[in-house]
Amino acid sequence: MGKCSAISTLGLVMVLTFAPKLRSQTPAPNAATDSAKKWNSVPPPMSAYVGKKSGPAPRRDLSGTWDAAGMQEALGTSGAIEHPALFPGRKGSEGGRPDETGIEHPLPYTPLGLAALKANKPSGPGVRQVHAALTNDPAGKCDPLGFPYMELWEFRTVKLVQTANQVILISPFYGNYRIIWTDGRELPTDPDPRWNGYSVGKWVDDYTFVVETVGLNPNSWIDHAGRPHSDQLRVTEEFHRVDHDNLQLTMTINDPKMYTEPWLALNKLPLHLQPADFDIPELLCSPSEMAEYNDQIGSGAAAEKK
Amino acid sequence: MTRTNISASLLVIGLLATSVSLFAHHGAASYDTSKTITVTGTVAEYVWANPHVFVKVDAKDDSGNIVRWNIEAWNPVTQANRGWSKSTFKPGDEVVIETRPVKNGQPIGQFAGKIEINGKQFKLHND
Known about the structure:
The complex is a heterodimer. Chain A contains five helices and nine strands; from the N terminus they run αβαααββββββββα. Chain A is α+β, with helices and mostly antiparallel strands. Chain B has a single domain, classed as CATH 2.40.50.140. In chain B, a hairpin with a 6-residue loop joins strand 2 and strand 3. The interface of A and B includes residues 72, 90, 130, 133 and 302 of A.
């Protein structure tokens, strides 16, 4: 025992002696090069991930900063990625149609759903696009995007934080956040509406986290193409951790008032893990800046031709 | 005004093919996707703001009158990812900007190609 103890002590002394020296020999990554690079980090392009090897997925863990690389795919400017409001061949981005007849992946509207769709005037590119000054998109007034709009339009870099009883999603685009309870509570029945709804999540296996959300404010839209929803909307998300560096997000929309059957909004949207020191840039919606934009650009652009 | 006085002219330089990705942009319905105009003038103001960054440029039209152009880019994050910043343009800068104009003839446009600031070529707005 005494010998073991002596060896342990010697080992400890060696570690303490040499550790600082080892540390000092290892250059701090990027620290002295350019501190500005530590801020407003820029995610790499999709090509950076091609052929990149990843370690195994940690068990029941989504935490980290995730980027939906390949911005154009994730932007959803023409509506939910699986159902863009575009004709076959991704044509028809400049509006001019009152409804979505003929788009490539049509949605199963109820009569009420179709009427609600027509009342929504989207400014994003698509077959129903209107001038920026004529839109009634909640985002056009800097209203909260709410959920699921925040994940179906401009889904940029997000942060997932796991605590003992919640998963928190922080999406700096328009300053969004979500609280997903994991403490086993039931979803509320007939709750007061909330822009971000009421969410509960559970692990269905060690790598798949399923979230159900209800109680969503019908004043929000589903996506940037003006797809409507009612207070009966229920959204199911599946976050699947493929391996250490990769996560996939699948989202199903179920709103029996507006749609005759559930539909897939996201199908395994790839999300890529970013370095721990990734600083997500800010992109908020400022009502006064929006008003100036509409005054200087939107209104003039929408005016009748001279 | 002479032909060499570039700042006095707005020149339609050509037709461009378009794509959805080019106009993944709100309000793009207003723009004439078949046309590119070169706006040459002096920066009056540069607005680094949401939802879209834009620059106000005073350019002379063919009659020598000063016309205030508002030319928009995308949001600050997208622009920053392309190397723009709050100080890319300054009031007084002499600029040449390829612009996609609105359909209704107003002096409003989107960045659509080459950008020259005080005689130096700046990054192409290549989305």
